Automatic annotation (TrEMBL), chains A, B, C:
Gene Ontology BP annotations: response to metal ion
The protein's name: Divalent-cation tolerance protein CutA
Gene Ontology terms, MF aspect: copper ion binding
Family in the record: Belongs to the CutA family.
InterPro entries attached to this UniProt entry: Ion_tolerance_CutA (IPR004323), N-reg_PII-like_a/b (IPR011322), N-reg_PII/ATP_PRibTrfase_C (IPR015867)
Length: 109, 109, 109
Protein backbone atom coordinates (compact mmCIF):
# COMPACT_ATOMS: atom_id res chain seq x y z
CA UNK A 1 0.00 0.00 0.00
CA UNK A 2 1.40 3.37 -0.95
CA UNK A 3 0.93 6.34 1.30
CA UNK A 4 -1.39 8.88 -0.43
CA UNK A 5 -0.37 12.54 -0.46
CA UNK A 6 -2.25 15.53 0.89
CA UNK A 7 -2.29 19.15 -0.22
CA UNK A 8 -2.48 21.13 3.03
CA UNK A 9 -3.41 24.82 3.31
CA UNK A 10 -2.72 27.33 6.05
CA UNK A 11 -2.42 31.15 6.19
CA UNK A 12 0.15 33.34 7.94
CA UNK A 13 -0.14 37.03 8.80
CA UNK A 14 2.82 38.17 6.68
CA UNK A 15 5.51 37.00 4.26
CA UNK A 16 8.25 36.74 6.88
CA UNK A 17 6.30 34.41 9.17
CA UNK A 18 5.10 32.43 6.14
CA UNK A 19 8.63 31.96 4.84
CA UNK A 20 9.91 31.01 8.30
CA UNK A 21 7.17 28.42 8.84
CA UNK A 22 7.72 26.95 5.36
CA UNK A 23 11.43 26.49 6.02
CA UNK A 24 10.74 25.00 9.46
CA UNK A 25 8.30 22.42 8.05
CA UNK A 26 10.75 21.27 5.37
CA UNK A 27 13.63 21.25 7.87
CA UNK A 28 11.55 19.08 10.23
CA UNK A 29 10.68 16.69 7.34
CA UNK A 30 6.93 17.11 7.89
CA UNK A 31 6.63 18.60 4.38
CA UNK A 32 8.59 17.99 1.18
CA UNK A 33 7.72 21.26 -0.53
CA UNK A 34 5.85 24.41 0.45
CA UNK A 35 4.64 27.18 -1.89
CA UNK A 36 4.41 30.58 -0.21
CA UNK A 37 1.76 32.34 -2.33
CA UNK A 38 1.48 36.05 -3.01
CA UNK A 39 -0.39 37.93 -0.24
CA UNK A 40 -4.17 37.45 -0.21
CA UNK A 41 -7.03 39.29 1.48
CA UNK A 42 -8.97 37.09 3.89
CA UNK A 43 -12.60 37.87 4.69
CA UNK A 44 -14.38 36.43 7.75
CA UNK A 45 -16.77 37.37 10.56
CA UNK A 46 -15.36 38.41 13.94
CA UNK A 47 -17.58 39.39 16.86
CA UNK A 48 -20.47 39.98 14.49
CA UNK A 49 -18.70 42.22 11.96
CA UNK A 50 -17.19 41.32 8.57
CA UNK A 51 -13.40 41.73 8.85
CA UNK A 52 -10.67 41.71 6.22
CA UNK A 53 -6.98 41.00 6.79
CA UNK A 54 -3.94 40.45 4.62
CA UNK A 55 -2.69 36.89 4.87
CA UNK A 56 -0.06 34.81 3.08
CA UNK A 57 -1.33 31.33 2.05
CA UNK A 58 0.89 28.25 2.13
CA UNK A 59 0.37 25.17 -0.08
CA UNK A 60 2.07 22.24 1.65
CA UNK A 61 2.77 18.81 0.10
CA UNK A 62 3.13 15.83 2.48
CA UNK A 63 2.03 12.18 2.78
CA UNK A 64 -1.12 11.40 4.77
CA UNK A 65 1.02 9.41 7.21
CA UNK A 66 2.83 12.65 8.15
CA UNK A 67 -0.30 14.81 8.56
CA UNK A 68 -0.49 14.54 12.36
CA UNK A 69 3.17 15.56 12.75
CA UNK A 70 2.69 18.40 10.24
CA UNK A 71 -0.38 19.72 12.07
CA UNK A 72 1.49 19.62 15.39
CA UNK A 73 4.45 21.50 13.85
CA UNK A 74 2.16 24.19 12.40
CA UNK A 75 0.37 24.66 15.73
CA UNK A 76 3.64 24.90 17.64
CA UNK A 77 4.98 27.73 15.46
CA UNK A 78 1.85 29.51 14.13
CA UNK A 79 1.13 32.91 15.72
CA UNK A 80 -2.65 32.40 15.76
CA UNK A 81 -4.39 30.56 18.58
CA UNK A 82 -6.67 28.78 16.07
CA UNK A 83 -5.04 28.79 12.61
CA UNK A 84 -6.69 27.46 9.48
CA UNK A 85 -5.27 24.04 8.70
CA UNK A 86 -7.17 22.05 6.06
CA UNK A 87 -6.07 19.24 3.73
CA UNK A 88 -7.41 17.87 0.45
CA UNK A 89 -6.47 14.45 -0.96
CA UNK A 90 -4.11 14.01 -3.91
CA UNK A 91 -5.61 11.27 -6.10
CA UNK A 92 -3.39 11.57 -9.21
CA UNK A 93 0.15 12.77 -9.81
CA UNK A 94 3.46 12.18 -11.52
CA UNK A 95 4.77 8.97 -9.87
CA UNK A 96 8.34 10.23 -9.57
CA UNK A 97 7.19 13.42 -7.85
CA UNK A 98 4.91 11.53 -5.44
CA UNK A 99 7.83 9.24 -4.53
CA UNK A 100 10.08 12.26 -3.98
CA UNK A 101 7.57 13.73 -1.49
CA UNK A 102 7.49 10.43 0.42
CA UNK A 103 11.29 10.17 0.49
CA UNK A 104 11.80 13.76 1.66
CA UNK A 105 9.38 13.32 4.57
CA UNK A 106 10.51 9.90 5.79
CA UNK A 107 10.94 10.39 9.57
CA UNK A 108 14.20 8.41 9.73
CA UNK A 109 15.81 9.95 6.61
CA UNK B 1 -22.02 12.29 11.67
CA UNK B 2 -20.06 15.45 11.21
CA UNK B 3 -20.55 17.62 8.16
CA UNK B 4 -17.38 17.49 5.99
CA UNK B 5 -15.93 20.74 4.66
CA UNK B 6 -15.33 21.78 1.08
CA UNK B 7 -12.74 24.09 -0.44
CA UNK B 8 -14.64 25.93 -3.19
CA UNK B 9 -13.00 27.93 -6.00
CA UNK B 10 -14.39 30.65 -8.22
CA UNK B 11 -12.87 33.54 -10.20
CA UNK B 12 -13.99 37.17 -10.47
CA UNK B 13 -13.00 39.70 -13.14
CA UNK B 14 -11.34 42.19 -10.73
CA UNK B 15 -10.39 42.78 -7.11
CA UNK B 16 -13.41 44.96 -6.33
CA UNK B 17 -15.98 42.39 -7.44
CA UNK B 18 -13.98 39.63 -5.75
CA UNK B 19 -13.87 41.49 -2.45
CA UNK B 20 -17.59 42.35 -2.67
CA UNK B 21 -18.58 38.74 -3.37
CA UNK B 22 -16.35 37.46 -0.55
CA UNK B 23 -17.99 39.82 1.95
CA UNK B 24 -21.47 38.92 0.70
CA UNK B 25 -20.85 35.17 1.12
CA UNK B 26 -19.60 35.57 4.70
CA UNK B 27 -22.43 38.00 5.53
CA UNK B 28 -24.98 35.48 4.19
CA UNK B 29 -23.35 32.68 6.27
CA UNK B 30 -22.77 30.48 3.21
CA UNK B 31 -19.00 30.69 3.82
CA UNK B 32 -16.95 31.03 7.01
CA UNK B 33 -13.81 32.42 5.41
CA UNK B 34 -12.83 33.50 1.91
CA UNK B 35 -9.28 34.19 0.64
CA UNK B 36 -9.15 36.72 -2.20
CA UNK B 37 -5.93 35.74 -3.99
CA UNK B 38 -3.62 38.03 -5.94
CA UNK B 39 -4.73 38.54 -9.56
CA UNK B 40 -4.11 35.60 -11.90
CA UNK B 41 -4.08 35.21 -15.69
CA UNK B 42 -6.72 32.77 -16.92
CA UNK B 43 -6.22 30.94 -20.21
CA UNK B 44 -9.11 29.26 -22.09
CA UNK B 45 -10.58 28.79 -25.57
CA UNK B 46 -13.33 31.11 -26.78
CA UNK B 47 -14.90 30.79 -30.22
CA UNK B 48 -11.94 28.77 -31.41
CA UNK B 49 -9.14 31.10 -30.24
CA UNK B 50 -6.96 30.91 -27.10
CA UNK B 51 -7.88 33.87 -24.88
CA UNK B 52 -6.26 35.25 -21.75
CA UNK B 53 -7.92 37.40 -19.09
CA UNK B 54 -6.99 38.73 -15.68
CA UNK B 55 -9.10 37.14 -12.95
CA UNK B 56 -9.08 37.18 -9.16
CA UNK B 57 -9.45 33.69 -7.60
CA UNK B 58 -11.42 33.07 -4.41
CA UNK B 59 -10.76 30.16 -2.02
CA UNK B 60 -13.97 29.59 -0.03
CA UNK B 61 -14.32 27.40 3.07
CA UNK B 62 -17.80 25.99 3.87
CA UNK B 63 -19.45 22.73 5.00
CA UNK B 64 -20.80 20.36 2.32
CA UNK B 65 -24.30 20.89 3.75
CA UNK B 66 -24.07 24.59 2.73
CA UNK B 67 -22.73 24.01 -0.79
CA UNK B 68 -26.09 24.38 -2.57
CA UNK B 69 -26.81 27.68 -0.80
CA UNK B 70 -23.26 28.90 -1.53
CA UNK B 71 -23.53 28.02 -5.23
CA UNK B 72 -26.87 29.85 -5.47
CA UNK B 73 -25.38 32.92 -3.75
CA UNK B 74 -22.41 32.97 -6.13
CA UNK B 75 -24.65 32.65 -9.19
CA UNK B 76 -26.95 35.44 -7.97
CA UNK B 77 -24.11 37.93 -7.60
CA UNK B 78 -21.45 36.78 -10.12
CA UNK B 79 -21.12 38.97 -13.23
CA UNK B 80 -20.52 35.99 -15.57
CA UNK B 81 -23.38 33.99 -17.07
CA UNK B 82 -21.49 30.72 -16.46
CA UNK B 83 -18.88 31.24 -13.71
CA UNK B 84 -16.38 28.61 -12.62
CA UNK B 85 -17.57 27.05 -9.38
CA UNK B 86 -15.75 23.85 -8.33
CA UNK B 87 -15.25 22.23 -4.93
CA UNK B 88 -12.72 19.77 -3.54
CA UNK B 89 -13.24 17.77 -0.33
CA UNK B 90 -11.45 18.55 2.93
CA UNK B 91 -10.44 15.20 4.46
CA UNK B 92 -8.13 16.38 7.26
CA UNK B 93 -7.90 19.56 9.31
CA UNK B 94 -7.42 21.15 12.70
CA UNK B 95 -10.59 20.10 14.60
CA UNK B 96 -11.12 23.50 16.22
CA UNK B 97 -10.90 25.25 12.84
CA UNK B 98 -13.31 22.79 11.20
CA UNK B 99 -15.78 23.37 14.03
CA UNK B 100 -15.42 27.14 13.64
CA UNK B 101 -16.34 26.87 9.93
CA UNK B 102 -19.45 24.85 10.82
CA UNK B 103 -20.50 27.30 13.53
CA UNK B 104 -20.01 30.38 11.34
CA UNK B 105 -22.17 28.94 8.55
CA UNK B 106 -25.01 27.52 10.67
CA UNK B 107 -28.16 28.83 8.92
CA UNK B 108 -29.91 29.77 12.17
CA UNK B 109 -26.89 31.40 13.85
CA UNK C 1 -21.54 7.75 -15.74
CA UNK C 2 -20.21 11.27 -15.94
CA UNK C 3 -16.49 11.90 -16.03
CA UNK C 4 -15.38 13.61 -12.77
CA UNK C 5 -13.13 16.64 -12.97
CA UNK C 6 -9.70 17.14 -11.44
CA UNK C 7 -7.95 20.27 -10.23
CA UNK C 8 -4.32 19.78 -11.25
CA UNK C 9 -1.36 21.79 -9.91
CA UNK C 10 2.09 22.32 -11.34
CA UNK C 11 4.77 25.04 -10.97
CA UNK C 12 6.89 26.76 -13.63
CA UNK C 13 10.10 28.74 -13.10
CA UNK C 14 8.76 32.06 -14.48
CA UNK C 15 5.67 33.79 -15.87
CA UNK C 16 6.67 33.37 -19.52
CA UNK C 17 7.07 29.59 -19.34
CA UNK C 18 3.89 29.35 -17.22
CA UNK C 19 1.85 31.33 -19.74
CA UNK C 20 3.29 29.32 -22.65
CA UNK C 21 2.50 25.97 -21.00
CA UNK C 22 -1.03 27.13 -20.11
CA UNK C 23 -1.74 28.10 -23.71
CA UNK C 24 -0.28 24.84 -25.00
CA UNK C 25 -2.45 22.72 -22.68
CA UNK C 26 -5.64 24.50 -23.74
CA UNK C 27 -4.63 24.39 -27.42
CA UNK C 28 -4.03 20.63 -27.13
CA UNK C 29 -7.45 20.17 -25.44
CA UNK C 30 -5.92 18.48 -22.38
CA UNK C 31 -7.23 21.34 -20.20
CA UNK C 32 -10.30 23.57 -20.50
CA UNK C 33 -9.01 26.42 -18.37
CA UNK C 34 -5.73 27.23 -16.62
CA UNK C 35 -5.14 29.94 -13.99
CA UNK C 36 -1.58 31.28 -13.96
CA UNK C 37 -1.21 32.50 -10.37
CA UNK C 38 0.96 35.34 -9.14
CA UNK C 39 4.58 34.28 -8.49
CA UNK C 40 5.15 32.22 -5.32
CA UNK C 41 8.22 31.29 -3.29
CA UNK C 42 8.81 27.55 -3.16
CA UNK C 43 10.71 26.02 -0.27
CA UNK C 44 12.24 22.52 -0.42
CA UNK C 45 15.36 20.55 0.47
CA UNK C 46 18.07 20.04 -2.14
CA UNK C 47 21.28 18.11 -1.41
CA UNK C 48 20.72 18.54 2.32
CA UNK C 49 20.12 22.31 2.38
CA UNK C 50 16.82 24.24 2.50
CA UNK C 51 16.43 26.06 -0.83
CA UNK C 52 13.99 28.73 -1.96
CA UNK C 53 13.03 29.57 -5.54
CA UNK C 54 10.48 31.76 -7.24
CA UNK C 55 7.90 29.67 -9.10
CA UNK C 56 4.63 30.39 -10.90
CA UNK C 57 1.81 27.97 -9.94
CA UNK C 58 -0.78 26.77 -12.45
CA UNK C 59 -4.31 25.62 -11.51
CA UNK C 60 -5.54 23.36 -14.33
CA UNK C 61 -9.13 22.13 -14.82
CA UNK C 62 -9.65 18.89 -16.79
CA UNK C 63 -11.71 15.67 -16.63
CA UNK C 64 -10.16 12.60 -14.99
CA UNK C 65 -10.34 10.81 -18.35
CA UNK C 66 -7.88 13.37 -19.78
CA UNK C 67 -5.40 13.26 -16.87
CA UNK C 68 -2.92 10.88 -18.54
CA UNK C 69 -2.80 13.01 -21.70
CA UNK C 70 -2.43 16.17 -19.60
CA UNK C 71 0.43 14.71 -17.56
CA UNK C 72 2.22 13.64 -20.76
CA UNK C 73 1.76 17.13 -22.25
CA UNK C 74 3.17 18.79 -19.10
CA UNK C 75 6.19 16.47 -19.04
CA UNK C 76 6.90 17.04 -22.74
CA UNK C 77 7.05 20.83 -22.34
CA UNK C 78 8.10 21.40 -18.70
CA UNK C 79 11.70 22.58 -18.22
CA UNK C 80 12.25 20.50 -15.05
CA UNK C 81 13.31 16.87 -15.19
CA UNK C 82 10.89 15.99 -12.38
CA UNK C 83 8.15 18.65 -12.16
CA UNK C 84 5.45 18.73 -9.50
CA UNK C 85 2.22 17.40 -10.97
CA UNK C 86 -0.52 16.62 -8.44
CA UNK C 87 -4.31 16.44 -8.80
CA UNK C 88 -7.20 16.71 -6.34
CA UNK C 89 -10.75 15.53 -7.11
CA UNK C 90 -13.63 17.91 -7.85
CA UNK C 91 -16.68 16.54 -6.02
CA UNK C 92 -19.11 19.47 -6.41
CA UNK C 93 -19.50 22.23 -8.99
CA UNK C 94 -21.83 24.26 -11.15
CA UNK C 95 -23.21 21.67 -13.63
CA UNK C 96 -22.96 23.99 -16.64
CA UNK C 97 -19.33 24.75 -15.87
CA UNK C 98 -18.45 21.07 -15.38
CA UNK C 99 -20.07 20.26 -18.74
CA UNK C 100 -18.12 23.09 -20.40
CA UNK C 101 -14.83 21.61 -19.13
CA UNK C 102 -15.78 18.20 -20.56
CA UNK C 103 -16.79 19.68 -23.93
CA UNK C 104 -13.61 21.77 -24.27
CA UNK C 105 -11.38 18.78 -23.62
CA UNK C 106 -13.17 16.19 -25.79
CA UNK C 107 -10.34 14.62 -27.84
CA UNK C 108 -12.31 14.66 -31.10
CA UNK C 109 -13.78 18.16 -30.76
Amino acid sequence: MTDPLLLVLTNLPDADSAQALAAHLVEARVAACVNVLAPATSVYRWEGAIETATEVPLLIKTPASRYAALEAAIRAQHPYELPEVIAVPVTHGLPGYLDWVRTETAPDA
